[in-house]
# Entry
Amino acid sequence: MGERVSKICAALERCAVFADVGCDHGFMTRYMFRRKLCERAYITDISEGSVRKAARLLEREIAAGKCFPVVADGLDGIPERCDLVLIAGMGGEEIIKILRRSGLPQRFVLQPMKNSEKVRQYLLEQGAMLDLDYTFSEGEKFYDLIRGSGQGGDSYSPREIAYGRDNLNGKYPAEFLRKTEQEREKIMIRLTADMKEESRAALTEQLREREELIDELKRTL
# Structure
């Protein structure tokens, strides 16, 4: 099990009904059953091939009537309310579309591949409470992980929406610092190219923000 899957699994909690949206190989659902963290689960993916792969891994639980494969978009086709929903490995805008159709779950774990700031903004607008929001890495790739509940209401600053609250409050600074330093280097390389003045000004502002953030993060280590 790779670092990405391990980090996602570590954020999962005990529940009655679990849904693994975009289940791929089904590793996270297998983790839930092996740890006895759920009574039953739905593995769902828009790809029939992905659902078949996950179903092979979970054939014992399926045969026991504890796991139910569903070929569908998001939570469509799941006949009951799931009290923990995992959506991992897809873009932030796609995650938002799924949540718009289904409503916010009681508990959720989200791992957007991009546009994490849009996911945070949407969750907050819907009255969600976020209790985990940080960046982790697998090799040279970086991922954001967001966990919370559909009720409670939370308040984020614009910087927390942009970068993730736990990356800024000193809980998980090291990997986010490495990500921010890489972003700074990429911006510096882009600034060596010819471009319009307005584009250069926007990149220069991004560079300034990254430099300030790096200095702030280093003080927390």
About this structure: The chain has a mean pLDDT of 94.
